[in-house]
Write a structure and sequence with these properties.
Blueprint (H helix, E strand, L loop, with lengths): L1 E6 L4 E6 L6 H4 L4 H7 E7 L13 H16 L2 E8 L2 H11 L3 E8 L8 H16 L5 H15 L3 H13 L2 H13 L12 E7 L4 H10 L4 E5 L5 H4 L2 H16 L3
Parallel strand pairs: 2-3, 2-4, 4-5, 5-6, 6-7
Antiparallel strand pairs: 1-3
């Protein structure tokens, strides 16, 4: 595990938890400069995605390591935690398990997919080979780059950094992360005293995700944006600025 703390060290603490097959440098690189102005950032890279040679074990083992870090370095409490996509599963677990306290749990347009073991195994057998094949030839790299640019509105540099994740991290870590995320369930109607759940809802993902947010958390604060999944962290500034403003508003709300 890798933790880097930076930004406004007198500001509120905000933990950044990256998504599937990403390190924080790739996932949050476009928004770190803006977030650093106001917040004491705690940037996390999981086992298997931290350059240490370790293999990602499973979501709960990594959640326990994050909890231990928060207890040791921040007395068991954070002002906020922001999860990008799969990173939101960690945010949900940190809230649900109640071993540490987070005032503002911020979910970055997550899927929050959950399934049984057979379905998770089948999905990982199909999806993981696809993910790890993106960069196996120059033709595939070029095709993937264009898809990323069209879907997320990434620029060439961001698309190349994103693609690099699928070749620099081990297939075993990618498989374990994808598979165990599907098996890591959230309860329904989660409510923790003095914790607010905030959702960045990318409405182009579809309303089934909106229904999930309302199912898993009691009275969540949901902000709707006309964008695709995580377009605000990877795409153009016109998506980024409104979401960053919403994050500031989340962090100032009473709990």
């Amino acid at each position: 595990m890798q933790y880097e703390e930076m930004g406004n060290m007198t500001g509120k603490t905000l933990m950044l938890l990256p998504g599937t097959c990403c390190d924080w440098q790739t996932n949050f690189g476009n928004v770190i400069p803006a977030l650093s102005q106001n917040y004491h950032l705690i940037c996390v890279n999981y086992d298997g995605f931290d350059g240490s040679g370790a293999v990602f074990p499973d979501m709960i083992t990594v959640t326990k390591k994050i909890e231990a870090y928060i207890k040791e370095k921040h007395a068991g409490r954070l002002d906020g935690a922001l999860g990008s996509s799969l990173g939101s599963s960690f945010v949900g677990q940190l809230v649900q398990r109640k071993n540490v306290h987070i005032d503002h749990a911020i979910f970055g347009s997550p899927d929050l997919d959950q399934s049984g073991k057979l379905s998770a195994w089948l999905q990982s057998k199909l999806v993981v080979p696809l993910l790890t094949s993106f960069t196996k030839s120059e033709k595939k790299r070029n095709k993937t780059r264009e898809k990323l640019k069209n879907f997320f509105l990434m620029d060439d540099e961001t698309a190349d950094k994103f693609m690099e994740c699928f070749s620099k991290f081990s297939p075993e870590s990618i498989k374990n992360e994808y598979y165990t995320d599907l098996l890591t369930w959230l309860d329904n109607d989660i409510s923790v005293e003095h914790t607010r759940a905030h959702f960045i809802y990318a409405n182009k993902m579809g309303e089934k995700y909106l229904r999930r947010y309302k199912k898993y958390f009691h009275d969540p604060d949901i902000r709707e944006f006309d964008m695709q999944h995580e377009q605000w962290v990877f795409g153009e500034e016109r998506y980024r600025i409104p979401v960053l403003k919403a994050i500031d508003e989340f962090m100032e709300m009473p709990v």
